[in-house]
Each structure stands twice: as C-alpha cells, then as structure tokens.
C-alpha cells in the first residue's frame, strides 16, 4: 500500500501543477520578423531621403504650435484640472486591487494612506508656475510604490503594468505646481501632456525672470539617449533623455534648471553637451533625420508609462517627433485623434494596401486600441512599422514576450502556430494618422 502521506504529497503536487497551468505563460521565444528584418531603420529610407516633410510656413507653424503646447502651463489661461474629477480618479485608484513589487496584493490600508496624502491639502492651493529639474515619474497617487494590474486569463496584467504610472517629465519642462502632500515630499502638477504627482525635489517654482529666460529661446533638442549633463565645473547634474528641450546659449551650450539654495526658486546654469548628442531645435524633418533619430530608440527595453526611465509605444512616437518641433500627445488614444483616416471598415488586405498607398513613410502613425506604431514604408510588398511593444498574444492564455522597440510587419509571429491570426496587429488596426499635418489639437 502507498502511505497516506504519499497520497497527500501527490495531491498537492497535482494541485500546484494545475494552478500553474492556469496562470498566464510569458515565454521568450523567437519571432521571425525580429530575426529576418534589418533593424537599422535607415534600410527603409525612400528614394528621396533628404526631402523635407515640413517646409517654409508649415514648418514654422508646427514649431509655434509645439512651443505653445510645451510651455502652456505657464500661460495665464492654462486650464487647471477639474478638482472633483481628479479626486474621484484618486479614490477609484485607491480602491482598486492590485499587486505590489512582491507580487502580493497591496494592502487596502496602504492604498488609503496614499489617498489621504493626496486629498489632505486644498486642491490647487499653491497654483504657481514651476519647472522640472530632473527626470521625473508622473504618478497618479503620491507614492513610488507599484500597483500592478491583477493578472488576467489572456496573459495580461502584472508587471510592467503599474496602474499608478502615468507618464514621465523631462528636465526643463514647464509645469503648474498645484498643491503638495502634508510632508511636502510630493507635488501635484499639471504639465502640457498630463497631470500627476512628482517628487518635490524634482521640481521648483519658476518666477517671471526665469520664465522669460526659458521662453526666449533658441533651443537645443537632446538626441543621444540618455545624455549626461555636466556643469562648467565638470559636476554631473542629470541624465537627459532623447526629446529633452533646453535653451541654447550663444556659445552653443545649453541651460538646465536648478533650485537656488537660498530661495528655492529655479535658475538656469550652463552645461556643455557631448558633441553630436544634441541639435538645434527644430531639426529638419526629413526621412533620413527621422530614421537616424529612430535608430537611437531601436532595441530599447519597453517601459510602461515611462517606468524605469524607459518608453512604451506612445512615448516612443512622441519623443521621436519632439526634436522636429512636432507636437504629439502623450498616449496612443490621444495620438489617434490627430488628422488621419479610419481603416477599421477595410479588410486586413485592404488596410495594408491603403497604408502603402496613402501613408507617408516616417510621417504616418498606425493606431489600434491601446497601441501606436510608426509606418516606415513598404518592404518586400508589405508595410513595415517601428514600435515598442511588450508581447504577442498566443491562442491559449500565454504571451510571447518581446519587450523592446523593433521593426516588424503588421503580423509579427505569423509563422507561429500558437499565435491566433485574428489577434494580429493587422486585424486590430483602426486608423492611420498624420502628425505632421497642420492643425491645432483639441
């Protein structure tokens, strides 16, 4: 006879195996597009790679629109976030269940403490202009702790999808300082792209003299990702990501903001950037320049909402166009509202045909729910795209992990039997948009 203890051990082993089998599987396995397609974006340049995609008055208008939106938090008529709607969002988040860094549920008591800190001060009691001093995470509640989405049966949720990570802010960005937590550690700010909580040490008030200096221009756009910024004494100040916009001095240096030790107000100090790490803003929007900028992003690790100083799909497209003076909203849903054409009613074959017929290589975005991609042009009879994505869905409850910025077709993984063609990117495409087309955004 088999001892009872052995039966119990066998029972628990089978139960554990069944539970593990029911959990989503995240596998790292080959995808042909990533191995077959050249990942140097310059491979896909059109025959006229130096033709400007924005010229003359159109380029000036695009730059003016960009600067207006970029510095909008300093405008007297800047619309402040709705207090009631914002507080309701905080309450809903604090009431949401999620997983912490240890993959265990975040206690309700901890979530309540975040909410209490957010709501303690009168909404907008500070309401003054400010500037970002250092790269900053824009959080939806005043904490750096994670609240990862619960795991779902289709392989979604969990890491890296932190429900509290809204976006990131770059050094030199304009913000409106609204109010702070009781301990002063966190400041609620409104930026030109989004609202959220940042660590107070990463922002400073910006008085009229500072704002006048910053608004006067001209500017440098950081291209190397990231670029180490050092002051005139050689002291390291911060890492500036691609897409950072800083005032340019007559001798070619850049200004970065620091907090004055006596007053706490922002002031500008010069820093010298390594040769080739930045360019005068706006860079001319040619396919070649866009491709060379995109090459700096290829292969970079995926980062939801900018987590860990990384980028997701929409941050990739936004930062790609920023050095060219083209304003692109923060998330994929807002980017889809740019001028464009709906493709949802077309068959998958006709969607590809329309994209190759009407899309402008390096100047067209392809949108689907929750994702945005850059159209690179036709290659071997198929449209290619550049995008930063986390995974591909399998037929069962698993996903194939990619987790980086890459060049693919609209059907990556089509050669795999475990991927459902009906869930491919091509089947999900809804719209193509043209960010260089001149029009004020809502």
UniProtKB/TrEMBL annotation:
Residue stretches making up the NLPC/P60 N-terminal domain: 13-118
Keywords (A to Z) from UniProt: Hydrolase, Protease, Signal, Thiol protease
Pfam family, one: NLPC_P60
Family according to the record: Belongs to the peptidase C40 family.
Gene Ontology biological process terms in this record: proteolysis
Origin superkingdom: Bacteria
Domain called NlpC/P60: residue spans: 299-377
Domain SH3b2-type SH3, residue spans: 207-247
Range of residues in the leader sequence: 1-27
Protein name per UniProt: NLP/P60 protein
InterPro entries, sorted: NLP_P60_dom (IPR000064), NLPC/P60_N_dom (IPR025606), P60_peptidase_YkfC (IPR027017), Papain-like_cys_pep_sf (IPR038765), SH3b1_dom (IPR039439), SH3b2-type_SH3 (IPR026864)
Transmembrane segments: none
SH3b1 domain boundaries: 156-199
Gene3D superfamilies: endopeptidase domain like (from Nostoc punctiforme) (3.90.1720.10)
Keyword Signal set for record: yes
GO molecular function: cysteine-type peptidase activity
Record's keyword annotation contains Hydrolase: yes
